[in-house]
Design goal:
The complex is a heterotrimer of chains A (292), B (414) and C (326). Helices cover 41% and strands 17% of the residues of chain B. By secondary structure, chain B is α/β, with parallel strands linked by helices. In chain B, the strands form 3 sheets. Chain B has a 7-stranded mixed sheet, sandwiched between helices. In chain B, strands 2-1-3-4-5 form a 5-stranded parallel sheet, sandwiched between helices. In chain B, strands 11-12 form a two-stranded antiparallel ribbon. The chains are: A mainly alpha (292), B alpha/beta (414), C mainly alpha (326).
């Protein structure tokens, strides 16, 4: 095992971690800040990837250009999902958590079924894009360009989200609504409006992630499943309620995954992530930076 | 407690239960069950499989001038022209569900034979059910070597298994070495389900027997979101040959990641699966010029056997793709099963089973480059010679064994 | 003193008895193998979901990693039988005890986690176990374990064609799980749990007592789930890590309880009776097309039921029922 191998592994791990963070940032908003479970997070990613693919296949729009379109489409979709489905789940007086889990779980299955119905289960890939397939080499360390772009986008997204939550009125309204919907109603804030917009924003962030992922990852109805669990662990590791936590969580997950693969057979690399998560929460029951 | 639901089910199945068993003997149709994944991650395989089976059924049921069993004439002459009717079922890659579907097909749909299943784990339980009910099971495309070694009377497999495939790969290596090519070190890259595990084991064993050094044995989790760490290890090992055993999803990610990390092995010799799927080549074909895969079927056989091209066209019309390793095996499985039923002149399980055991069909009467179809006492056809195909200029070209080859292998890959 | 509560409990017991007797008679009339298979699965999931309900419904510790215990039960039974010739009856017991022990060992650090952190912890623990088994050669790794069936035998608990013995075992297991739940409702533990659920901060002051009861709930829940796993191994006679330790299984154990009424006595049973036949029938009769329609139907129904009746379908039968378990 040479130094080069180790450095390359860590570099790839860091990039991957930031990508996990990008996928998780939407979840950090919805799950982390609004405290609403979304078991269909992976499927939102899948929809975003399909949207990007079809914009490419039918209109030859490069994923980078498609990204804002996809994010906008996902914004609408996310808000719609909240208003049509999740709103009722949140309202449930009994077992709100379980209802959220299972209603969104059912939604995930429906989305996968619809994707299979309309798009067939076949695997799709975007073959030609501005960034696709390109890789740069820095001192012998290879950094794939799409992932690099994704990593930078992740950083930008987290910074933007941080400011949004902590410095804008809407961000504060979001947190307040989560704390006590009744109280905020007295101040004239409509919980449903706030949450719908929050879901829209969270979904838009996933849309962004999906558009970038589609540059280098294959698309098929079940593609979300592989990433969903990592997204949940990332947010939980960082701590619910903390945007920075989700960001840090992503980086840690990526690095731990890469390091574990160096020590154990790669088929066990996820065990490292899970072990770190458990270790962290056993010591700090609210994750690294969580406030909830 | 919804007892009413039980009543509904009672009523629905009463009619099925009342059908006399004797009705099987005198039918104007032969019902064959086909169990495949029709939803979930491998759904596309199941969907393509349906088209392959439908193509075969059409050839049996209608008159086609092919030198293929039952192609000429309509239906099964041994049963008075009875036509083949297929019943499809979805096992969702779950052994328990596959078993439930097999039971349903046997007891409700009254199938006289079952073909399946793509995933070897599901074949385990489906073949068990068939054994218990005395219904023949044809393993169309399961390649796990342990399947025919379980002492089952009703289990048959016309196509090769992983040990045979891997042996072909190593025979090829030996032949190339004799010609002076440097092949000393190997990297194994296999996923962690049955397919990858069997393949890895077979390859490890053969490498030891034939004197090749395995410098890297990377076992990875199927459907991983990232394969950077794994490819990193392969790159560091820098073997003469990379030997992947991967499904389509992992195959695509592997090739892309190799490109991202700047890893280009002198040769890639794949254990089929993802490397015979159109979707993979659509995605990353431009990076795979010269990749070699083991296979059962090669389209260039059409040059010597025109019916292969015609049958391929029929399949392509239904599915939009050429016949590949899986669809060709699925196609042949139905033809061979129907042939045995025809020879048995009966839809009785035991008789069909005996007919299968007595099968002896020369390879020229199939669409495969096989010597023969003849099952040993465990139900395995040992004369199903695998081939090695190389992806050149967008097509698969047979390069091994010499009697089937149409071109010399290009080594190293470009 | 015959309170309304005591009356209800007596009535529950009688109703359960009647249902059990009716259920026991059904296979004598319904001979179709496929339908019997659905019934066995329904009873098995009723038992599993009821066991899950003890920890997650009554005790309030939502676990989405119960496939861990199911898988441990299945593997213990299968390994002891195929490697050491130990009869499945003992194997199931062994699996149950091992799972109970592990549940308590895990509970110790995990129970101080709240809400979502706990749920995710259960998920990753189960995933870790799956990965370990997938890579453990002695236990078959990905090839799984094929339990040879040589003929009908009660001793080896294997039957070639008949589903009846499996049916009655599953029925018995479901009854046991139900009875345990029924007994717990009127026990000290049950009272602690209701108190804690109404007022989570009370858990702090009740301290050690509540903690011990949680450990107890975890152990009982895990024990019963593992027996279900051992049963499954004998029923299907082939197991591999994905089929007995997968996350989908954890969800499927929880789903009937959620749909039927989490934290209620009848919820899991009702949920299983509706959900399992639905799952099987949509797959068998709509799934064959490969278009994913069965998934759409199945998923839509889950969404509708979980939203329309958040307290579970049990609420349809008797609104008063809810208060006892809360």
């Amino acid at each position: 095992m040479t130094a080069e191998t180790i450095i390359q592994s860590l570099a790839s791990g860091l990039l991957m971690g930031l990508l996990y963070g990008l996928i998780a940032v939407g979840l950090a908003l919805i799950f982390g800040l609004m405290d609403v479970v979304n078991f269909a997070h992976g499927e939102f990613l899948m929809i975003a990837m399909y949207a990007t693919f079809f914009l490419f296949a039918f209109f030859a729009i490069d994923p980078l250009l498609a990204a804002p379109l996809v994010a906008a489409a996902l914004f609408v979709f996310g808000a719609a999902v909240y208003l049509l489905v999740v709103r009722f789940a949140v309202r449930a007086k009994a077992n709100a958590g379980m209802v959220q889990i299972f209603s969104t779980f059912g939604l995930a299955i429906v989305m996968r079924g619809l994707a299979q119905y309309f798009f067939t289960p076949d695997y799709r890939s975007i073959t030609h894009s501005w960034l696709g397939g390109k890789t740069i080499s820095v001192a012998g360390i290879f950094l794939p360009v799409p992932q690099l772009f994704g990593a930078l986008t992740a950083i930008a997204a987290f910074v933007a989200l941080y400011f949004f939550i902590n410095r804008t009125d809407f961000g504060r309204a979001l947190e307040a609504t989560r704390e006590d919907a009744g109280a905020v109603a007295l101040v004239g804030i409509d919980k449903n409006r706030v949450f719908a917009l929050g879901w829209g924003l969270g979904a838009a962030l996933v849309g962004l992630a999906g558009a970038i992922m589609a540059i280098f990852f294959y698309v098929y109805p079940d593609v979300g499943a592989s990433f969903a669990l990592i997204a949940y662990v990332t947010v939980a590791l960082g701590g619910f309620g903390s945007v920075f936590g989700a960001f840090a969580g992503g980086i840690i997950v990526g690095l731990v995954e890469a390091t574990t693969a160096l020590i154990l057979p790669p088929s066990l690399k996820s065990v490292g992530i899970y072990a770190v998560y458990l270790l962290v929460v056993f010591i700090r029951p609210r994750g690294l930076f969580g406030s909830l | 407690m919804s007892i009413s639901r039980r009543n509904v089910l009672l009523g629905a199945t009463a009619s099925a239960a009342l059908l006399p068993v004797a009705a099987r003997a005198q039918t104007s149709e032969v019902v064959i069950g086909v169990i495949y994944p029709l939803s979930g991650a491998s759904a596309q395989i199941g969907v393509d499989a349906q088209k392959a089976f439908e193509t075969a059924a059409e050839i049996v049921n209608k008159n086609y001038d092919f030198d293929l069993p039952l192609a000429r004439g309509e239906g099964l002459p041994g049963l008075g022209g009875a036509k083949v009717r297929l019943v499809f079922a979805d096992h969702q890659a779950d052994p328990q569900k596959g078993r439930a579907e097999a039971e349903r097909l046997i007891t409700q749909e009254k199938v006289c034979a079952i073909i399946g299943t793509y995933q070897s784990a599901v074949a385990v339980t489906v073949s068990q059910v068939c054994e218990r009910y005395g219904i023949p099971f044809m393993s169309a495309d399961n390649s796990s070597p342990s399947l025919h070694r379980r002492g089952l009377k009703f289990y048959f497999r016309a196509s090769p298994h992983d040990e045979m495939y891997s042996k072909a790969m190593f025979d090829f290596f030996d032949a190339m070495k004799k010609k002076g090519t440097k092949i000393e070190t190997l990297s194994l890259f296999h996923e962690d389900t049955i397919f990858g595990t069997d393949s890895g084991n077979a390859q490890t064993k053969l490498a030891a027997e034939r004197g090749y050094k395995i410098v890297s044995d990377v076992k990875y989790r199927a459907n991983s979101p990232s394969l950077s760490a794994e490819v990193q290890q392969l790159k560091a090992a820098n073997a003469d040959v990379l030997m992947p055993s991967s499904y389509t999803t992992d195959g695509i990610l592997l090739v892309k990641t190799m490109g991202e990390l700047g890893y280009k092995p002198p040769a890639i010799v794949a254990q089929d699966a993802g490397f015979s799927e159109k979707a993979l080549y659509d995605a990353v074909g431009d990076k795979l010029e010269g990749v070699i895969s083991r296979g059962t079927f090669s389209l260039d056989l059409a040059a010597k056997r025109p019916m292969v091209a015609k049958i391929n066209d029929m399949f392509k019309e239904k599915s939009g793709k050429d016949l590949n390793d899986y669809s060709s095996r699925q196609f042949m499985a139905l033809i061979l099963m129907a042939e045995a039923i025809n020879r048995a002149k009966s839809t009785d399980g035991e008789k069909i089973r005996d007919a299968l055991a007595a099968t002896d069909i020369p390879g020229e009467q199939t669409i495969m480059p096989w010597k023969r179809v003849k099952y040993d006492e465990m139900g395995q056809n040992n004369d199903a010679d695998p081939v090695l195909l190389q992806y050149v200029g967008g097509k698969f070209v047979t390069i091994f064994p010499p009697q089937a080859a149409v071109a010399e292998a290009i080594w190293p890959m470009k | 003193m015959d309170t309304a509560f005591a009356q209800r409990r007596r009535r529950d017991l009688i109703v359960a008895g009647i249902f059990a007797v009716i259920a026991a008679l059904v296979p004598l009339f319904v001979k179709d193998v496929y339908v019997q298979n659905i019934m066995v699965l329904t009873l098995m999931y009723a038992a599993l979901s009821q066991s899950w309900n003890i920890l997650s419904g009554y005790c309030g510790q939502i676990s989405l990693g119960h496939a861990l215990y199911f898988g441990l039960g299945a593997y213990t039974t299968a390994l002891l039988f195929t490697k050491f010739g130990v009869l499945p009856w003992f194997g199931m017991l062994g699996g149950g005890l091992i799972s109970a022990a592990i549940a308590m060992a895990l509970g110790y650090p995990c129970f101080r986690l709240r809400g979502h952190y706990f749920v995710i912890a259960t998920i990753v623990i189960a995933e870790t176990a799956l990965l370990l088994f997938q890579n453990w050669d002695w236990a078959g790794a990905a090839l799984g374990i094929d339990i040879p069936v040589r003929g009908d035998s009660w001793l080896k608990f294997q039957f070639v064609r008949s589903k009846l013995p499996y049916f009655y075992f599953a029925l018995a297991l479901a009854c046991v799980a139900w009875l345990v739940t029924w007994w717990l409702e009127d026990s000290k533990w049950g009272y602690w749990w209701r108190a804690v659920k109404d007022n989570p901060d009370a858990a702090e002051s009740l301290g050690v007592v509540v903690f011990n009861s949680k450990m107890g709930a975890a152990a009982v829940s895990a024990f019963l789930t593992a027996i279900g796993g051992g049963f499954y191994a004998q029923f299907v006679s082939y197991i591999d890590p994905e089929s007995v330790m997968g996350f989908q299984f954890s969800l499927l154990m929880a789903l009937p309880a959620v749909l039927g009424g989490i934290g209620t006595l009848w919820g899991p049973v009702l949920g299983a009776v509706i959900l399992i036949p639905l799952t099987e029938l949509t797959r068998s009769f709509i799934g064959g097309s490969g278009r994913g329609v069965d998934l759409i139907v199945y998923g839509t129904l889950i969404v509708l039921i979980s939203l329309a009746r958040p307290e579970g379908l049990v609420g349809l039968f008797s609104p008063r029922r809810k208060e006892a378990a809360r």
